User: What shape does this take?
Amino acid sequence: MAEPQLAPEVFDRAIVAIALTAGAEHRLAYRNEAFQELFGPRSLGVPVGELFAGPEQEGVVRTLDLVLADGSARQVTTPAVLDGAGDTDHRHFVYSCSPVSSRHGAGVLIAAIDTTEQVHSTQDAERLSAERLHALERYEALITAVSQLVWVAGPDRSMTELVSGWERLTGHPWRDTMDSAWLELVHPRDREGLLEQWTHASAGEPSKFEHTYRLKFASGEYRHITARVVPVVRDGELVEWIGATSDVEDRWRTRQRERLLAASVVVTESSRPEDAFAAVAELVVPDLTDACTVFLLSARQSTGRPDETIGTRIASAARAGLPPLPALREQTFRLGPTALRAVAERTPVLLTFPPGEVPAGVVPAESARWLAEVHATSLTLLPLVIDGTTAVLAAAATCQDGPPPGAEDVELLRDVLQRAQSALGRTLELQRTRQVALVLQRAMLTDPPTVPGTGITARYQPGNRAAEVGGDWYDAFLLPGGRLALTIGDVSGHDLTAATTMGQLRAMLRSLAYNLTGGQTPADVLTALDRAAEGLGVGTFATAVHLHLTRTGPGWRADWSNAGHPPPLLLPATGEPRFLTAAEADVPLCVAPDRQRHTHRAELDPGDTLLLYTDGLIEVPGEDLTTGLDRLLTATRHARDRSLDDLCDHLLAQVPDTRDDIALLAFRAVLPSGGRT
Assistant: This one.
């Protein structure tokens, strides 16, 4: 907003001599009638230094330079020689100089007061000077009265004088001495910042400052005001502060809305619902509220009872200085009547209550305990409609005995959330697609069989990319004759199509492996799968390792074939872990169906562990694959004594990048004594 401009003509008939200069040369831009009567006609456009010639007037020009340089009001006392009708009159003046902006540009307003009588009358000089100068300084404050409120504070910041308007603005009567009581009307969150800036302006040579903060108005609501505060310095000492304040609530709210709505783009960049809703919560904290929690809503049906609406906490944010929020684990609660009303009417509901006494049924018990700890005084429930359904409920809290939000604050909160609803809707739709794919995928990943003398454990961990479900799979099943088949595979892509193709390849491989007779090897099975996939139009780029495990007394023989997949890892009961690799690698599936594949063999002693895995366990974008393989070797080397379940969980916990799906299949030949599995 542009600085208020002074219209000097308001001083035409003022009894105080007023002049206005413009620019660095201090050219006379205006003089009122009182000025001309006192100093005689002075031509406009002439530098003040020429109008007030003589060594005794040099102090005036220096003072004008300082006022323009640092923007502080200053005073200078100096004698002057006035030439009347044939007479020379020696007078004494005090010039009070204040920075102003007018249509002539930046300049200085000069108010001149004749103090000759005070100087000549030593008995009354001090009293009259103080009264006249005090009156003059009040007059200077009026020149900035473009604002709603003008006030004077002492060096200690206690209010001592003010122009009319305080009671009309705040609803509080003005007392002769306000001390620091006026600060009670400043918003609690803004007092520290205001005092810090004022203290900074007071340090060293006092300087002017401008600060925007919230003041409690007569309506009971807080509104943003901007205060422009200028020090009054006399004889090098800070005498007072003169402040002019303007209501800037509408301008502040417009800018805040524009800034928050522009910042809401971060919601559209989030692919996971958790991240998207966390972005929404962080968007409104701390500018609009102290803390915000977001709940996903769902219906729960109960036999013989009405359906219930359940809220599940998905994201939270709190401003700095508050205790840590409860851990973001699943928190659910049954919505009470007030929350249900907000959801049903699709309109915000503001709840106010004594500090810490949170009503039941508006947040989970754990969140309510946290709100009690921070002395919350209000909760604003904001329902969010997505695709025609009230799918989300946000709860915005005022903490530490702070005042509740006003109607315009609630409206701005609502605007910001509504701006994000489209992005949140897309994110939820992606999540639903992801859930469908996960259900489909997990339905196809059956539990491993129970085989005496062995331990078999499987894990599937989806990546954290929303709506991206990979084609990773594992399988373990018994073949005719007692052999055990293990398979690990990965279909390219991260979508529902990849998951569907994975299911088809897995079913085909299982059927081929089970039905091929006459000593068929793992290479034969993969070759048959390759040809069948091409013939049936299922072909897509995929990798796999297929093994046949045959018991050999206390140990096992592993025959395996690798179609372009990361190598199996053998972890001996004693000795160093090693990868099962071949001198010549076979190509992935669905690349060259007629190309010959190879079967390789490894022996497993009792206690040995064989680990099959997909690339999500070892790959990190931008990192060499060898680095990931080395990391896996190190992790298994220090975990050889763990059970298979612990081993798999340990390896998953070591993954540095969890964006990709991971499938794990671990086999262990149990020690004869029935040892670790």
In short: Residues 149-247 form a domain with the Beta-Lactamase fold (CATH 3.30.450.20).
